[in-house]
Amino acid sequence: MTLKLGMVGGGQGAFIGGVHRMAARLDGRWELVAGALSSDPARAAASAAELGIAPDRSYSDFAEMALAEASRPDGIDAVAIVTPNHLHAKVAAAFLRAGIPVICDKPMTATLAEAEELAALAAETSVPFVLTQTYTGYPMVREARRMIAEGAIGAVRHVQVEYLQDWLAGPVEQSGQKQAVWRTDPGLSGEGGCIADIGTHAVNLATFVTGLGLQAVLADLTAFEPGRRLDDNAAVFLRFDGCAKGMIWASQITPGTKNALRFRIAGEKGGLAWDQENPDLLEFTPLGETTRLMRRGDGLSQTPSRIPSGHPEGYLEAFATLYADAADLIEGKGMAPAGALAMAEDGLAGMRFVSACVRSSEAGGVWTPA
């Protein structure tokens, strides 16, 4: 069965909308049939025409789209929200109230207060809300999660996550570059810059893989680029359940890095390490033994691979796994593996992390409950 997908945002000139569309198509589970792709009616219509969306299902207003699609016998099965952060809450709320499941790009909202309201609405309506925490879709990330849950490295002691980029190392926003303009504007991005944009991925990866809840943070957020209003570099200490500790370095001003996301986890009986730029490999080191290099497709029990081992799977495939999981959820097939999808409560946890980091840094670096 092919599910019908709508999209808000992601029109001409957008980046993440195209990623969502490619990922949704990859397994043949979704067909894009409707969209409010831009608040500008002409751009919305032109974008829809390029994507083969019928004129009567191209909208310039997301609220109109939610009501219209909910009333159609062939209405959409879910909506993908790929707008800047400040629109996530009101767009998601409109579709949840219309009874339409939501697949939302991260972070969940621009503010913690919005996230709390949206999580409450999702619980009240019982309409599925899925957050696309992309990197949880990688097979070897899920393999690491399974191994830790089954005790392969014993109790987790320390978690180290780095997420480094260099695309904001200069005053990019002053050139009018669209992605930089909204991500460095507090009115569009929210109170967090780098910490919300990629720091939420880092903390989600830490909690997803270990299965541990986050208790508190001690953060130092910095805007190194002169005149920049939001942080472009974040150093964060973490305290987890069960006395485990951790650190995150998230930066968008580190020359020589493009999408350098990696984790290393120390347990009482061994360790695990993974690098997003070599995603098919997972290092496993039992205490006192030689490191074992585990490869996707080598008979492991993680999410089934789409292609044979040795043919790399990457970012789009990981994103597509989330869309396949969302399709299973909406069709009532459950989620496999259990807990793999980030839901409303996970999005709320991410916004609590951002807010706690901002408060901690503003206070000069103090431990702050998360």
Q: Roughly what percent helix?
A: 25-40%
In what range is the share of β-strand residues? 15-25%
- The radius of gyration over CA amounts to 20 Å
Class by alpha and beta content: alpha/beta
Element order: H for helix, E for strand: EHEHHEHEHEHEHHHHEEEEEEEHEHE
Which stretches are poorly predicted, pLDDT < 50 over at least 5 residues? none
Overall 3D geometry?
A: globular
Oligomer: single chain
Q: Could you tell me the number of beta strands?
A: 15
N-end to C-end Cα span? 41 Å
Number of helices: 12
- How would you characterize the largest beta sheet? 9 strands, mixed
Q: Report mean pLDDT, rounded to a whole number.
A: 94
Which strand order does the major sheet show?
13-12-11-10-6-9-8-7-15
What are the SSEs and their pairings?
Layout: E1 3-8, H1 16-26, E2 30-36, H2 41-50, H3 62-71, E3 78-81, H4 88-97, E4 102-105, H5 112-125, E5 129-132, H6 139-149, E6 156-164, H7 178-183, H8 186-189, H9 194-197, H10 199-210, E7 214-222, E8 233-240, E9 245-251, E10 260-267, E11 270-275, E12 281-286, E13 292-295, H11 315-330, E14 342-343, H12 344-362, E15 368-369
Parallel strand pairs: 1-2, 1-3, 3-4, 4-5, 6-9
Antiparallel strand pairs: 5-14, 6-10, 7-8, 7-15, 8-9, 10-11, 11-12, 12-13
Helix pairs in contact: 1-11, 4-5, 5-12, 6-10, 10-12
